[in-house]
Amino acid sequence: MSLLVHIAVLFVLIKTCLWLWKHVHAKRRNLPPGNVGLPIIGETLSFLKTAPSGKFYRDREQKYGPIFKTSILGLKTVYVSGPEAMRQLFQLENRGLISWWPPSMQKLLGEGSVGAAPAELHHNRKKALVNALKKVDYTEICDQLGEIVNNEMSEWATKVKFEVHCHAKFLSIRCACTSLLGLDLTREEVGKVATMLKGFEDGLFTVPINLPGTAYHKAIQSKIQLYEFLKGKFQPQTSNTCILSSTGWSEDIMPDAIVELLFGAQETLSSFMTCSMLLLKKHPKVLQKLQKSIFGAGELSDATYVDCVAKETLRLFPPIAGGFRITTKEIRLKDYVIPKSWGVTYNIRSTHKQSPYFDDPDCFNPDQWLALSGCLPQLHYIPFGGGAHACVGRDYARVIWRLFLTTLTTRYAWDLITEDPVLLSLPVVRPDGGMWARLFPLAEE
User: What domain of life does the UniProt record list for this protein's source (predicted)?
Assistant: First the structure.
């Protein structure tokens, strides 16, 4: 009995010494401030509960500052925000940092996607997609997309009320299928695509257990069904109207590539459409100025103030919260050390708020972009992300936001039934429980 007691005491002493050594060693290495929570699970439970609203990161940033450590999803992680930190972070890409996604997201996006491709494949795959997008003649497809936007809004105006984010997703999918995939789908077929994308989206931030009944299993099935449905509508490798046909990619990566393309387009643009309708309704003077600028300009290409409104919307509510990275070796970021195999996540909205170039970071003020145009330093405004993994769809997004804002504000008026929706931030900015509205055609003068 005495021997067992001595062994137990020795075990406790060894564990205590190891903990103290790690604690002292960590302090000497100057790790970021913060709390990694409980062993193994870390702060994952709190993250899953409060991350969608942004509260998880917001509370810790207020307590520890713009750089802090935590432990989520089984990975010790450093949160980073602020323009200078972004500059250092993106400079370290492929020199100590590589892209990383939560396991469920990594598996669902697949290695055939651009975003989740292994580091050695990502550069060439992204370059091929960028070159393919450069071949899109946006002037040629503008009339076609404009007709789609107007048709969808006409449909919204027939309803007693409609949920904005859901209908904006439908519009975004229809635009992407037409202009990026070269598909002419019926409204019923677009609805099927939207349903399957919703099933896919619901599994992105879940435990990756592929068992019937789980959201992850449903997401896998939704992705398979979506590709098979679209495959019956076109042949990606031979269709001249699908942008992926000019990438030279093999057939085996097309399921991942097509789903990623549709998912990215519908999630980001529907978020922008929803937030812009909310902000313009809450700021009638901005809406009035926007309408006057459009009527005065006449041409879509002369859309300076339209772009100011869009940029300000994306500054306040960037659709994507941020990005994930993982260290391949120990790195230094500002005054801190981040050990090898730690995660790094950066926050876009917080970075925007820390920039000194925006007078009131919480105020919706599109006019400030009239003075900022061309003189805003890099990484003070990153709604499309930054570094090697920045979004490649900026030009496409610009065409859509111009068409959307122009059509909405010159042909329609709207009331918000949900006046103050709570906005969630994961996987994209969206209203919790929806944002209901009524749309009315403006009387023609």
Answer: Eukaryota
For 34, residues 6+ apart whose C-beta sits below 8 A from its C-beta are 60, 64, 68, 69, 70, 79
Q: So what's the pLDDT on residue 298?
A: 46
Q: Residues 76-129: pLDDT tens digits?
A: 999 999 999 999 999 999 899 999 888 899 999 998 899 888 888 888 899 989
0.85 exceeded by pTM: yes
383: cis peptide before it, omega within 30°? no
Look up the domain containing 226 and give its range.
38-441
Q: Are 169 and 445 in contact (CB under 8 A)?
A: no
Segment holding 265, helix H or strand E = helix 254-282
* 175 belongs to a structural domain: yes
Q: How far apart are CA 33 and CA 194, in angstroms?
A: 42
Q: Which residue in 111, 139, 141, 145 sits closest to 125, CA to CA?
A: 111
Residues of 75-85 as b/e, b for ≥16 C-beta within 10 angstroms?
Answer: bbbbbbbbbeb
Predicted confidence (pLDDT) at residue 21 exceeds the cutoff of 80: no
56 is a domain residue: yes
Tokens of 329: 């070796």
Residue 358: phi, psi to the nearest 5? -105, 120
CB atoms near residue 240 (< 10 Å): 7
Tokens of 346: 């950066």
Count of positions (residues) in the chain: 445
Which residues are part of a known binding site?
391
Residue 199 DSSP label: H
Task: Quote the CA–CA distance of 277 and 166 in Å, as a whole number.
Answer: 13
For residue 33, being part of any structural domain is answered with no
SS3 18: helix
Residue 27 resides in a domain: no
Residue 85, domain CATH: 1.10.630.10
Nearest partner of 267 among 198, 216, 221, judged by Cα: 198
Cα 174 to Cα 287: distance, rounded to the nearest angstrom: 26
- Counted domains in the chain: 1
* Rounded Cα gap, residues 254 and 170, in angstroms: 22
